[in-house]
Structure formats: structure tokens, C-alpha cells
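Example S7 (C-alpha cells).
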């Protein structure tokens, strides 16, 4: 994909872990806004839980502010097709540890950000992510310990690996209208990873059943991204 010509935000996404489960389409479809349909794989749809470190968040041509621009974030997302024929991501939730970032994202793009108490600790190839929402009565959250392994050789990566990690558009609803936002980043350097511990109820908080079975796992050191301007989907 060509680089976004006009970016409203530049970000670094670091120490990313991708966890994905397959869900029946009927579990996901009712949670999507009008105009979006699940992007299916063999009559199933993928749901991803992605914890990472957001870093160097800034508008173009402006410096980042150290405390404000670096914080843990965790996304719960699925993959959709829009009425414009495009494909992309729809977020069920985005947890972040900085209240100003939550407020701005909700106000600007109506993204379902939640202010959460979060941490990310790394030691060698081990990473531990933790999160718990402040405002929800039961404190929906997660704990994940994962060990990163060797890089995936490119011949071992199949279409589904690329599909789950090379999405360049998100959809959201602003003022009752469906909009899309393009995102540019280079290809992920994907590594093998092993889940050592996982507890989470973000899926049930989003209205999904608990996932079944072990997730498909990838990890990556990260990428630099450019976030484009929102556009009305016609």
C-alpha cells in the first residue's frame, strides 16, 4: 500500500503480540455497525487480541511528549468488508493507559477506547502484559505472559498469517456515519511465540462468547505507522 499522503498522527507500535481465534459468523455479525459485514475464512471470522506498547505518538512535524506519547495499549478487533468494497478492521475495544489519549480518540473518531490500569514488562524473550479497566464494575481486563521465538521464515508464512497482520484500514462510526481511516506501515517482521499464561475477559465484555481453543500466535518487535484522515464511506 502507498504511504498515506496526509497523516493526522504518527505512531510507533512496539513489542506487539497477536492472538487470534476463529468465531462463528453469527457471534460477530450482530456486533458490527450497519454497512459492515464479517470478512470470513471458511465460514468463520477471526477475532484478535493485540497488546503492545504505543510509543512516540505525535502529529506530523511536531515532537512527541515523553509521558503522554508512550503507554501500553490493547486492541480487540475483527476483520470486515465495507459497503465501498474495501476490507479492514473493526475494533470492539481499545484499552489504553493514558486518559488524554482515550478522550481524544473517542472525541475525534468515536473509537471505543477504555481507560485502563495497564503494564508491560519485558525480560529477554519474555513479555508480560496486564490490564484492568477503571470504569467498568468488574474491571474487565487481561493478563498475558508470552515468550517470543525465532523469526518466521518467509516460506512458512501462509495467506492467513499475512491476512491477520497486513490490514491497512479501520472502520468506525462518527456522528452516525460510517467512515474509514487508512493506516500505512511497512510489513511486520513476524516471530514465533508461545503463550505461557493467559487470562482475559475482554471478549465477553465486548459481547462475544469466550474463545475456544488455543489462539494462533505471532509476535513482532514493531513498526512505525502513519494514520490518515477519516473519510466518509459511500
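Recovered sequence:
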Amino acid at each position: 500500500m502507498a504511504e498515506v499522503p496526509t497523516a493526522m498522527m504518527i505512531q510507533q507500535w512496539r513489542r506487539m503480540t497477536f492472538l487470534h481465534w476463529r468465531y462463528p459468523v453469527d457471534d460477530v455479525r450482530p456486533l458490527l455497525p450497519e454497512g459492515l459485514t464479517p470478512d470470513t475464512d471458511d465460514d468463520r471470522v477471526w477475532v484478535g487480541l493485540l497488546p503492545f506498547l504505543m510509543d512516540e505518538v505525535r502529529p506530523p512535524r511536531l515532537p512527541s511528549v515523553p509521558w503522554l506519547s508512550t503507554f501500553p495499549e490493547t486492541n480487540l478487533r475483527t476483520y470486515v468488508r465495507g459497503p465501498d468494497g474495501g476490507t479492514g478492521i473493526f475494533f470492539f475495544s481499545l484499552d489504553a493507559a493514558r486518559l488524554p489519549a482515550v478522550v481524544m480518540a473517542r472525541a475525534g473518531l468515536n473509537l471505543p477506547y477504555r481507560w485502563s490500569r495497564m503494564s508491560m514488562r519485558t525480560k529477554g524473550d519474555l513479555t508480560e502484559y496486564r490490564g484492568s479497566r477503571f470504569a467498568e464494575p468488574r474491571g474487565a481486563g487481561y493478563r498475558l505472559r508470552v515468550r517470543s521465538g525465532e523469526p518466521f521464515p518467509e516460506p512458512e508464512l501462509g495467506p492467513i498469517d499475512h491476512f491477520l497482520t497486513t490490514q491497512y484500514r479501520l472502520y468506525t462510526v462518527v456522528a452516525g456515519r460510517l467512515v474509514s481511516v487508512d493506516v500505512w506501515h511497512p510489513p511486520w517482521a513476524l516471530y514465533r511465540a508461545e503463550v505461557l499464561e493467559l487470562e482475559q475477559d475482554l471478549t465477553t465484555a465486548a459481547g462475544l462468547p469466550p474463545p475456544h481453543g488455543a489462539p494462533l500466535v505471532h509476535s513482532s518487535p514493531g513498526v512505525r505507522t502513519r494514520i490518515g484522515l477519516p473519510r466518509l464511506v459511500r
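Notes on this example. The mean pLDDT is 94.
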